[in-house]
Structures are given as C-alpha cells and as structure tokens.
Design goal:
Layout lengths: L17 E3 L22 E3 L22 E3 L23 E3 L20 E3 L10 H6 L5 E3 L20 E3 L10 H5 L2 H10 L4
Length: 197
C-alpha cells in the first residue's frame, strides 16, 4: 500500500525502465512533472488505483520515452480527455484506459502515430472521431466494447493494420448483427464500403 506516497516521490528514480504501481491505493500522481525527468521509463502501469482521481496536466511530460501506459480502472485516466494531455506521449504503442469513466474519446489519441494497441472498453464513449481512421495507421488492436456507441465512423475501415476490433456491449444501430458476428475483417470491409470518396 502506497496511499501516503507524496506527489513526485519517485523523482529520484530517473533510471527506471518499467514501473508497476497497480492496486497501490494511490491518491495522487506519484511521478515528477518536470519535462524529460524520467526519460528512460518505457512502461507505466497504474491500473486499479480507484482513489487516484486526477493527474496534473503536464503529467506525461517527464516520460518522453513511454511506450506502455496502463490506467485501467483508475479514474485519473479520464484526465486524458483534456486536449494536449498526450502531447508528450508520442512514443506510446499501448494505451489502456479501460474502465476509467471516460465520457468521450481522448482527442490526442489520433496524434499517436506509433500506437498499436488501444483499449477503451467499459467507458461511456458515444463516438469515435473520423480522424482516428486517418491517423492511427499503426493500430492493430482496438477495444471499444461496453461503451455507448450507436454508430461507427466509416473511416475506421481505413485502419489497414487492424487485426482485432472489439465492439460487444454497444448499442450499434447502423450495423447488422450478421456483419458483427463475422469479425474484424468483415466489419472493416463494411465500413470501407460506406466511406466517402
């Protein structure tokens, strides 16, 4: 239990490559916010810290080499809805914001060109921006299950590297169940056919 850890307590540990503080009862952001301070950190797991409800706006600027960010089940993940919150995380290849209470799609995700795995399941997302289909060309896995999606952007069909698209538990109204049951490739083809030229 690390509930009493002061903000920035890990600032002296600049050589860390991987940090797992899952289920640590954190109540405040434990990392420094000075730009580049923990430039070697590649993996940060803060999942299931239910009392960590916020993170400072420049929270990720100290972590320019971050490749994996897992905030699953941690309400602070909803802070990534603020524009610019992922501006310093351009190296991310895996982002897990499942069950964080997100009420929208994080706007900066479309700028993460290296992103291969994105998990946004178990939230309240109602739409995926068209820009994701244009920009996230490295995306291989996208989990949007258990959200509030009634429609999907046809531009998601342009994600040619996508191998896994999870949509279960959404009230999709514009796509027949038969298409969904055929799997990712069938859904992508369906979306491509509806994409404006």
């Amino acid at each position: 239990m690390l509930a009493g850890m002061p903000a920035g307590a890990l600032a002296p540990f600049t050589a860390l490559i991987s940090l797992n503080l899952s289920q640590s009862c954190l109540t405040q952001w434990p990392l420094p916010v000075q730009p580049g301070r923990m430039h070697q950190l590649q993996e940060l797991i803060l999942s299931r810290n239910r009392d960590l409800r916020s993170m400072p706006p420049p929270a990720l600027c100290a972590l320019p080499g971050l490749r994996t960010l897992n905030l699953s089940g941690t309400p602070a993940g909803a802070a990534l809805l603020c524009p610019g919150s992922l501006a310093f995380a351009s190296a991310l290849t895996l982002l897990d914001l499942s069950n964080t209470g997100l009420a929208g799609f994080p706007p900066d995700v479309a700028r993460l060109r290296a992103l291969r795995t994105l998990n946004l399941s178990g939230n309240k997302i109602v739409a995926v921006p068209d820009e994701v289909g244009h920009s996230c060309q490295s995306l291989e896995e996208l989990d949007l299950s258990n959200n509030e999606l009634a429609t999907l952007s046809p531009y998601l069909g342009q994600l040619t590297q996508l191998r896994s698209l999870s949509l279960d538990g959404n009230p999709l109204r514009t796509m027949r169940r038969a298409v969904l049951d055929k799997g990712t490739l069938a859904v992508l083809e369906y979306l491509r056919e509806r994409c404006p030229l």
